[in-house]
Design a protein that fits this description.
The chain has 112 residues and is mainly alpha-helical. It has 5 helices and 2 strands; from the N terminus they run H-H-H-E-E-H-H.
């Protein structure tokens, strides 16, 4: 993954299964839904695979994750949960948005 905010894009994507739509996920992360859509489109471009099965009538909704999308959620969640709390704090300094870096699993890790 290239460019700015690659881990932020992964962390945001990993939250999709916890919400009923892209818009609800974006709201929970404090992002505009178009920003989250751009993050996902960039991930799809970089990986060369569709990550979502989109609902044709509602561009900000999706029906399911593709198998590649599910694999990415699992990998991103494991990576973010394993990241030391110190690393998460440093990354947050660069983004100013700690909610986008925290997954339910990662939020249970005590600071070092």
């Amino acid at each position: 993954m290239t460019g700015s905010r690659p881990w932020k894009r992964l962390a945001a994507f990993a939250q999709l299964p916890h919400h009923p739509s892209l818009r609800a996920t974006a709201d929970a992360l404090g992002l505009h839904h178009k920003t989250l859509t751009k993050y996902i489109q960039r991930l799809e471009r970089e990986l060369g695979q569709p990550l979502l099965n989109r609902a044709p009538a509602a561009p900000y909704a999706y029906t399911t994750l593709t198998s590649e999308g599910l694999a990415l959620v699992e990998a991103a969640t494991a990576f973010l949960a394993a990241a030391p709390a110190r690393t998460r704090r440093v990354l947050t300094l660069f983004t100013g948005e700690p909610r986008a870096w925290t997954t339910p699993a990662a939020s249970n890790i005590p600071p070092h």
